[in-house]
Amino acid sequence: MGSQTSTSEQDSDFSSELCFLEFHPRGAAIGTKDSVSGSCHPLTPPQEFVCPISLQIMSDPVIISSGQTYERVCIEKWFEEGHDTCPKTQQKLTHLVVTPNYCVKGLITSWCERYSFPLPRAPSPMPSPITSSVVAFSECVTEKAYLPHSDSTPLSSCEVATIGSPRFVPDGVIKRLGMQNGFPVSHRTSGSVMNTLNDYAKVLCRSPKPSFRCEQLKAVEDIRRLCRDNSDTRIYIGDAGLIPALVHFLNVAFRFDDDDAMEISCLALLNVAINNCRNKAEIVNVGAVSLLLKILGSEAPLSVREAAIAVFLTVSCLDENKPTLGSSGVIPHLISHLDSGTARGVKDALTTLFNLSIFPGNHACLLKEGMIQKINKLLTLGDLELTEKCITILHNLMLLEETHRVIAETDGCLSVLADVFDTGTPKEKDLIVGIFLTLSKAGADYTRLMLNEGVIPSLVMLSVNGTMRGREKAQKLLQHFREQRQKDTVLHDVVEVLCSSKSSKAEDLLGKSAKALLRKKTGTGLSLAIFRKSKSFSFPRC
């Protein structure tokens, strides 16, 4: 099977190759022990189900730009360490965006259920390169103690519970918390780490008195700094119950219109959630979404509102959060921000909208709130950083039939798409030809609109020099245009004959499209419309 550059095509071909594996697993080589039941399975999982990094069955497989599939946690850890190549092929990646591989995930689930194999769990994060030790985890602040309180609940009512649970506390976390580097990792030192985290939580849940404000701001800033570029720290700060405490403090800051506290709290939540799916889910589960929406709808400074958008950006990366966020009411705020935000804020808002557009259930809301009109406006600005995201969102929305009509009715939308199709990147051209192909299948009227934009020269070039995916779609679209032009030519000839015959029953013999042509009294035919845009090179007739 030939190599392909398209992720979706690789996924499809990979699916067909794995159909045999689902019902014919490989013979036993090494017993795999279920960590829960302790039973040994005489089956070796198919190699295609195993992450090349962790060597375990994947629980959340994702595809990277090289076409390889990895466990999400493992590949994100790889990227976080500064790598920009594929771990397996060493190919330099064009981008670091990962796409969920639902095909492989479904096959893994079916295979496990069929052969009573334990369903895979996400691998534990790799320990810090510095020596780690199993330690007692005590006096941890529970999640219940730091859930956001209502306005009537006194802030001093937070309680601290004690639980015992073994945890790995990396040495790097201890150093970042200001411990003495000379101390070995011990029960005493690790206990100090957790005590420090617990102290942060207690500080954030104190009464909102001016005397406590500086100490609380320092605690939030410490949390933000500790999580900025250390994944281990994010894990243990999440375990210590600091996410509910941060949301609680953000709620207090909003009630008292404390702009500095709101901004730094949002930035802390942002850093806590980076590359940590559990923390992303926790931020949504403890009620941060409604609070962040209040900030977006308030008269808070632009920097505060854009910090809130940054939180939405990172939590929207988690697939489980996309339906919740899409139905929360954040989409209108994000679309509105595209007109008023800074360059950074606009990019964050657009990327969040891109993440939400991946879930089909959000398409109707995006369309209703004027997403296509905003995309059209952004594309006319010619900002290269935003163009690909805009085209991708539009491509995702093509699943909705209403999108076809809105594109056709939006003034200049097809024209600007044709311009990007002429000059865009290979990925942008692949996306746009997909949009054009979907439109062409929606009806002859859409086909004529595209022909009027003079897209055939660019299609011919793409069919010769494009990616495999682009060439295939361009050839299909050119073939469709040929067939449509032949139909229109025959129809035009019939109209001319009937017009010359001056028959009173002429229109009764025509279909709807022919009547329209007759009323317009077209004299040159649609075959000339494709040359409306001037091109600097010749191309084959289609």
From TrEMBL:
Protein name: RING-type E3 ubiquitin transferase
Enzyme class: transferase
Pathway: Protein modification; protein ubiquitination
GO MF term (any one): ubiquitin protein ligase activity
This protein's UniProt keywords: Repeat, Transferase, Ubl conjugation pathway
Source organism of this protein record: Ceratopteris richardii (Triangle waterfern)
Reaction(s) the record says it catalyses: S-ubiquitinyl-[E2 ubiquitin-conjugating enzyme]-L-cysteine + [acceptor protein]-L-lysine = [E2 ubiquitin-conjugating enzyme]-L-cysteine + N(6)-ubiquitinyl-[acceptor protein]-L-lysine
EC number: 2.3.2.27
PANTHER family named in the record: U BOX DOMAIN-CONTAINING, U-BOX DOMAIN-CONTAINING PROTEIN 7
Keyword Repeat tagged: yes
Transmembrane stretches, start-end: none
The organism's place on the tree of life at top rank: Eukaryota
Gene3D superfamilies with a match to the protein in the record: Leucine-rich Repeat Variant, Zinc/RING finger domain, C3HC4 (zinc finger)
Keyword Calcium assigned: no
